Amino acid sequence: MSEIDMAVIKPEMMKPYIWLETSDGSIQQVEQEIAMYCPLICQEIIQKGMGSSKSCAICLPQRVSPVTLSLILDYCRFHQVPGRSNKERKSYDEKFIRMDTKRLCELTSAADSLQLKPLVDLTSRALARIIEGKSPEEIREIFHLPDDLTEEEKLEPLKNTTDDPRIRLLNRLYAKKRKELRERERLKNVEVEEEHVDERSVDDLLSFINGNDGDPKEVKTSKNKKKNRRKKEQQQKNSSLKEASEVNKVEVNGQSIRHQSAEADRIAETSNSHTEDVFAHREFDDGDIDDGIDPALKEKIDREVEDFARRLNSDWPERMQELLSSGQERKMMLFTPNGNSFLRRNA
Amino acid sequence: MEEACEFRSWAELIPDALGVIFTNLSLQERVTVIPRVCKSWANAVTGPYCWQEIDIKDWSNRCQPDQLDRLLEMLITRSCGTLRKLSVSGLQTESIFTFIAENACSLHTLRLPRSSMNDSIVEQIAGRLSMISFLDVSYCIKIGPYALEMIGKNCKLLEGLCRNMHPLDTAEKPHQDDEAYAIASTMPKLKHLEMAYHLISTSGVLQILANCPKLEFLDQRGCWGVTLDHMFLKQKFPKLKVLGPLVLDTYESDGWDDFSDVSDSSEYLAWDFVAGGMGEYYVDDSDSYDGMWDDEARLDELQFGFYEGIEDAGMYWPPSP
């Protein structure tokens, strides 16, 4: 009995050990033949002579945590034993990769940093099986990834592989909308300037009212000239505003009549105040015109975009099915069983 | 907090680890799904790690030549000079062969079956394929012995060659050994040679066997001009595994089993798997059809029941007070 115990203990004591330090600073002892299964650790031992004592332990990469290292050593402990059949190894591998996706990811990263290719291949195939056949939204949810792509970036890949005209039209609409948004931002800046000017014009108006009796006539004259300029600007800008122009024409005619009757009583004008009034009103009118146009265009574009998005979404299941069927036969196998179960449930 | 922790662990997956994962996905998913997940995945999938091995042979059988050229240029560009394996079928334009050759500094496995390249194109590009160790030019009916000679003279590391021909292309034609002589005189390191349904004759095979001492596998199924004695082969070339000329299932099984460790042979096994999968798919499709039929019958039954209900209601209407 005692002899048997000694025999068992003796080889174990003689077996060489090495020291490994993980990123959190903890150091542990590992059988050398098992650790040597990792190419990185093997290099450290052979080329640099590290790991022979606690004071010169091998520092493992940042991505290798103690828990992950334990898993990796279990894997190495099984596979470095000679004489196991391929069937046994495959069976062990299948059990080994049954873990949650987070741990599987950590394991892939750690195995990759240790250059342990068989384990990287095993875990990456398992992760690929998780990803396969899922939509980007599903993948994002499973792997807790951020939704940090713009709409344009999400549609970019489809441009490479599909000639669907709806995709192209949707891209065009998005570009148009983006352009409109940029222009509206510019207009906001202009409006800020207008408000600033308006304040001064109010002060000037008050001074006119309090100052002279002849101001009303002078104001009328200024209005007349401003409307004339407005008419010209409208003609230059856009011919689609005919109705507005007609209304302005009527007003202009009325003003010209008053102007003629008041001509005998006109008074000299102050050039500075006149210039300021003209500028203020002009800007105000411009603001009105722009505000009138943008909502209509914006509403139209939004309606078109929503319409196409709806149509695209309604066709999406068919398109996804088409994509899947055009993929590998393997995917067809994956898709059909679900269909079967769905139909069975209905029946 | 837990979610943040999980996010951090995913962010730690550096591009080459992501690349290893993505290489296990189908081409369709790598091109259309992964780039739309998030920025880091989009960057990883457009980087070189994913595209060191490009296999679009299945996909290329179903698309137009210009689409194929554009996609191939895009994918090869993504590999950034690290392309190692390329499998694509049915290439036609001369410029795409030049493009492949210009990006072949790391290429060791090249499969171009059913391509339209001719001797002149091969002469132009062979000088850039010096790293090739496995070449598949099966069903390339426009190249001949001169092209094989140029390949042999420039690809000094060549260990595997596929020069299978389609039976319809070689039927009723006389035997020719020019290609066999080109192989024998310029490819001394060959280990794996496939020439199914080729026009080669016995003397051509003997030339190859005499000049390729490392040959381990020879597929000559359908080479009706070849008659070799098995005893002779066993004595002279004990390490050589020969298939054919007769096309027998047992031979095929033995051949693949013996070479199951070779990566190229494993690709053939993958093909067998896909074929099996297709069969299963058809069975499943039939089940789907049956299911739909059952569903339709059920709908009819529902309608009938509805009409019965109405009749019953009419019959039992209470009399007027």
Can you characterise this structure?
The complex is a heterodimer of chains A (347) and B (321). Among the domains of chain A are: 15-132, Potassium Channel Kv1.1, Chain A (2-Layer Sandwich), CATH 3.30.710.10; 168-195 and 204-290, no CATH class. Helix content of chain A is 76%, strand content 3%. Chain A has 14 helices and 3 strands. A 3-stranded mixed sheet of chain A has the order 2-1-3. In chain A, helix 4 packs across helix 6 (101-113) and helix 10 (165-211) runs antiparallel to helix 13 (271-326). The model of chain A is unreliable at 1-10, 212-292 and 328-347 (pLDDT under 50). Chain B has 321 residues and is an alpha/beta fold. Chain B has 2 domains: 9-49; 51-247, Leucine-rich repeat, LRR (right-handed beta-alpha superhelix), CATH 3.80.10.10. Chain B has helices at 2-11, 15-22, 27-32, 39-46, 57-60, 65-79, 94-102, 119-125, 145-154, 167-170, 178-186, 202-211, 230-236, 249-258, 263-315, and strands at residues 53-55, 85-87, 109-111, 134-136, 160-162, 192-194, 217-219, 241-243. Chain B has an 8-stranded parallel sheet with strand order 1-2-3-4-5-6-7-8, with helices on one face. In chain B, helix 8 links the parallel strand 3 and strand 4 (134-136). Chain B is globular, with a radius of gyration of 28 Å.
Describe the protein's topology.
The complex is a heterodimer of chains A (347) and B (321).
Chain A: H1 2-14, E1 17-21, E2 27-31, H2 32-35, H3 39-48, E3 58-59, H4 66-79, H5 86-96, H6 101-113, H7 117-131, H8 136-143, H9 151-161, H10 165-211, H11 215-237, H12 242-262, H13 271-326, H14 329-346
Parallel strand pairs in A: 1-3
Antiparallel strand pairs in A: 1-2
Chain B: H1 2-11, H2 15-22, H3 27-32, H4 39-46, E1 53-55, H5 57-60, H6 65-79, E2 85-87, H7 94-102, E3 109-111, H8 119-125, E4 134-136, H9 145-154, E5 160-162, H10 167-170, H11 178-186, E6 192-194, H12 202-211, E7 217-219, H13 230-236, E8 241-243, H14 249-258, H15 263-315
Parallel strand pairs in B: 1-2, 2-3, 3-4, 4-5, 5-6, 6-7, 7-8
Helix pairs in contact in B: 2-4, 8-9, 9-11, 11-12
